[in-house]
Task: inverse folding
């Protein structure tokens, strides 16, 4: 296994790349937690769901960050966490008010020079908003 100049990892003729995305579902609207906001802008753009040719759902326009190691992936996670919606409830001082989906996508290509054959594997971790009783949280 060796590291290429562009950050991809190669094993013999196989090239790997890892991408991270982080989305939030807040009040039935999907937001990209990695989207950069222009200066002075406080509101994120909502994203829509789409469906690919195989009938799999995905978030249209979701930003994916290419990472080279676990520490970079953790940095991306922390950036996204800072963009989550939080509020105070009677049970928690700082409670997430949304669902979020953190996705790691591994792309494997047969060759860097002939990228037409690729295998994509995805792993998503979903954090669901608390289900506290409304009588306790108000």
Result:
């Amino acid at each position: 296994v060796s590291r290429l100049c562009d950050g991809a990892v190669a094993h013999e003729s196989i090239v790997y790349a890892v991408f991270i995305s982080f989305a939030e579902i807040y009040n039935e609207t999907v937001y990209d937690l990695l989207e950069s906001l222009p200066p002075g802008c406080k509101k994120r753009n909502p994203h829509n769901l789409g469906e690919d040719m195989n009938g799999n759902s995905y978030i249209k326009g979701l930003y994916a960050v290419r990472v080279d190691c676990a520490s970079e992936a953790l940095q991306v996670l922390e950036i996204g966490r800072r963009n989550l919606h939080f509020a105070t409830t009677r049970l928690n001082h700082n409670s997430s008010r949304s669902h979020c989906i953190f996705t790691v996508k591994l792309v494997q290509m047969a060759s860097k020079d002939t990228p037409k054959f690729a295998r994509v594997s995805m792993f998503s971790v979903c954090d669901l908003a608390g289900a506290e009783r409304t009588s306790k949280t108000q």
